[in-house]
Amino acid sequence: MRSSRVHARIVVAALLAASCNRPTEPRDPAAHGDVQATDARVAELVPMGPTPVEQLSTETLEHTELLRLSRDFGKQEFEIALDAWVDRARPRELAAVRLWWARPDRADERSPFGTRTRRHFEIIDERLAPDHWRINLVSDRKVFAFDIRIEDEGRPVAHASVRGLDGRHVERCRVERGELKARRVVGVPAGIDELMVSCTDADGTPMQGTVVWSPAG
User: What pLDDT, on a 0 to 100 scale, did the predictor assign at position 118?
Assistant: First the structure.
């Protein structure tokens, strides 16, 4: 089993400024930055710059959006997408997994996180098996983990450990939509307080709750 870990510190100083109603220049974060990639071959195949959503699937790779995160801070036209790609020649393997920007105001166009966005939380990608990745979002010494697997129907899905608003704890709840809630200091976003999600348990019952986090080591 091969493991690949890609570390990136992410936060949006410009978005934090925007949340305080201070003006920011209309720069595309994709013009500034590194992106997460699995290996050299996949890095060449997965789009690395601003990309229309219809171009995310290629002749070689099939794209699936796993999770979309909005935020209660920053520019609302920037959301975060968790995307996965499967190699069409090896449909039981995950070729790549990436967190990057999605622009609802531009028909869900994707663009990589830029260097100006890497101050607030860390992303750790782990390839645990050919069909199993884990994405850890680390902020304020909290780790929010998502497990991405290829399910029986042959499509990748994302699960998280979720504590429901009713107090129920579901260890593997399939997530598709969520919202990052900021920790605020004198009204200014200073970290991530919690991650609210909508998810579906193993019985197909929908629920809402927060992703259970673990302390960062």
Answer: 62
